[in-house]
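Comment thread on ticket #2218

A.B. wrote:
> Attaching the input chain for the structure job we discussed in standup.
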Amino acid sequence: MPATRTPVRSRAAGLALLLASSLALTACGGGSSPSAAALLKETLSTHRPIASGQLAASLTLAGASGRQASSLHLAARFQAAASGRLPDFALSLGLTQTARELAVGAVSMQGRLFLALGGAWFLVPEGAAQALARGYAQSGGAPTLSGGSALSRIGVDAARWLTSPRIAGSVKLAGEDTIEILASVDGSRFLADAQRLSQALTSPVGAQLSDPSDPLSLRRISNGPEPRGWTMHVHTGAHDHILRRLAMAVTVLISTPTSGNSSRTRELGTLSFTLAVARPNQPQTIAAPANTRPLSRLGAALERLGLARGSPPGG
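C.D. wrote:
> Ran it. Output below, let me know if you need it in another format.
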């Protein structure tokens, strides 16, 4: 393919690099009978790398009175690779926004990289895949995925918005023993991080959950009353203190101007957030997709979905 950059090539490269770097997880070493604050700090620290596992995350804004929801979903399986190479992974990202739906995906396997859009798979040329691997390594990637590094690089840090933890008890989660911690949530900081994360994940494909024109916009929630009383359920491994799950579902309010200088507060809907980690440091099988197309045809797929303008790159 020609070496010249195009909007489509840049967008595809940005998406692939972002998807790869988004796989960093949170982990740490264990301890005996820690306090709730110490246990939460351990769980959210980055002491122990996770070389393989599964990750699922979702952020949903469901409107009041049965209004349609906007949501962002991420699912991934990954296996760390040798130094200088992207980790092997299979990843899907879905966005639902009012009447619009978008699904993209990526597979990295033994140095080959594939992108999915509009139900079709595209093979990224070897040279471009190698360039992305170099960019990943230069941005902090490693043979094993050290906890939290990628999320922290885009300003997402759960330790900033979880406060006043208390241990709720022991819970079986997906067949594993976990300790449940309840923590208060600084709503303003959470929303700021949620906007950064949603923008980082969706801007490479030309869409974002924080679109100010969307009535269920994260930005609109941030401009409402100060969020209060939010609680996050945190599950950490009982033996390894690796994060297994973050979960929250809260009612959100917004303010609308009325006559004069007053405003009216009303319920917008329910904000739900989940981050789940499964099978940490257990081997994952990643397979290459079948029936792949050359990357030169990605531009047409982007244009069909209204995500790109101009000519696609040469084949």
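A.B. wrote:
> Thanks. Noting for the ticket: Residues 1-9, 24-32, 142-150, 308-315 have pLDDT under 50 and may be disordered.
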